[in-house]
Design a protein that fits this description.
The protein has 360 residues and is of the alpha/beta class. Helix content is 35%, strand content 22%. α10 (280-304) packs across α12 (323-342). Bound molecules: zinc ion (ZN). Zinc ion binds next to loops.
């Protein structure tokens, strides 16, 4: 546990769901944890005991799934175990996806088809995901991403070649997206739950991590399904990509997490990575402090001499980065530099080699 985590309350202690099995976190809400083959090695999935009305006006009992995991044989096998052992003989009646990243949307097409269940998602993320299964999309790699990072000072030929060749990354994890969806929008309210636990869940959009991330808050239950917007242990990836090069992604992210500040202090937060916790306000402040410190370090470096985003990697990341991590790290580095640029604290100029350099 790091120092920041010590200030949070992990309400279930060290309890973790076993593969294919769930842990109940609140009445009618089960927690699943599925393995990921990345540095970030797992994703959390929530099963909400729920009911809907079918086209004949009959009530249908079942489960709403929040997020799905990537489409690989292991998570499919885990889901098969879940179907048998955790659904209490009931079907999945809706598939709700917080955002378009592969660990969240990858198996949505399979779950929706298997259970004849509708997909619920924000429009921006739905269409971005559909684009992603057809072609290399921004952020996942490809020549445009490599050129963009080169214009921000990345020179390592191996990293650049790997990034430019990673055109199939998204499709390998998200081979398909359902043909239809039901649109989730900020400020809407969705009735979810069953019996006494059926209450409105307010949808809260968030930006800077995904195009239009949707978190869900149930005021009557004191529960926030935070997705990737508020994570207890790691800071959410906030990146600038080649298709939106001027983006103030970090500004958007920090504004977005402030939307959770009016929520009660004892809200139970269900994050997509890490363990359920209380201490939402503390965590929001920790995230602000983290980025404030990083921004101060980047600004100090830009005062010493002009910096490219690649130069700033040394300031932001103490550890050595592999080619995969360099993609995320470059995106984060540009996000911090763009934040300073948009607030007039640094100026961006292109040098003789065409590389963007930021000076205070
Ligand atoms: Zn994500």
């Amino acid at each position: 546990m790091n120092d920041n985590e010590k200030a949070l309350d992990y309400v279930l202690g060290d309890t973790l769901p076993q593969p294919g099995r769930a842990v109940t976190v609140a009445p009618g809400i089960k927690w699943l944890r599925m393995a990921l083959p990345f540095a970030l090695d797992h994703v959390n999935i929530w099963l909400l005991r729920d009911e809907t009305v079918d086209s004949q006006g009959q009530r249908v009992q079942g489960w709403t799934v929040v997020d799905c995991c990537i489409d690989k044989p292991e998570p499919r096998a885990q889901w098969q175990t879940v179907f048998v052992r955790e659904l209490e003989g009931l079907p999945i009646i809706r598939v709700l996806v917080t955002h378009m990243h592969p660990d969240h949307v990858g198996l949505a097409h399979w779950l929706c088809a298997r259970w004849q269940a509708p997909l619920y998602m924000s429009a921006t993320d739905y269409y971005t995901a559909r684009l992603g299964v057809q072609q290399a999309i921004s952020g996942a790699g490809g020549q445009a991403a490599a050129d963009f990072f080169a214009s921000h000072g990345l020179t390592d030929p191996l990293a650049l070649r790997q990034i430019s060749q990673r055109t199939d990354y998204y499709r390998q994890l998200v081979p398909a997206v359902p043909d239809q969806f039901r649109r989730l929008m900020d400020g809407q309210s969705l009735a979810l739950g069953q019996g006494p636990n059926r209450t409105p869940w307010h949808l809260v959009s968030g930006f800077g991590h995904a195009p239009e991330h949707i978190a869900l808050h149930a005021p009557a239950r004191g529960i926030l399904i935070a997705g990737d917007m508020v994570l207890p242990r790691i800071s959410t990836n906030v990146s600038v990509y080649d298709n939106d090069p001027e983006s103030d992604a970090l500004g958007l992210f920090l504004e977005s997490i402030d939307k959770f500040k009016p929520l009660p202090a004892d809200t139970l937060v269900l994050p997509s990575h890490g363990k359920p916790f209380k201490g939402l306000h503390t965590r929001i402040e920790q995230l602000h402090a983290h980025h404030r410190d990083r921004l101060a370090e980047v600004l100090a470096a830009c005062r010493r001499q002009p910096q490219s985003a690649a130069d700033v990697l040394k300031v932001l990341f103490s550890r050595a980065l592999d080619a995969h991590q360099v993609t995320f790290a470059m995106g984060e580095s540009i996000a911090h530099l763009n934040w300073l640029m948009h607030r007039g604290q640094v100026r961006r100029q292109r040098d003789a080699e065409g590389v963007h350099r930021f000076s205070a």
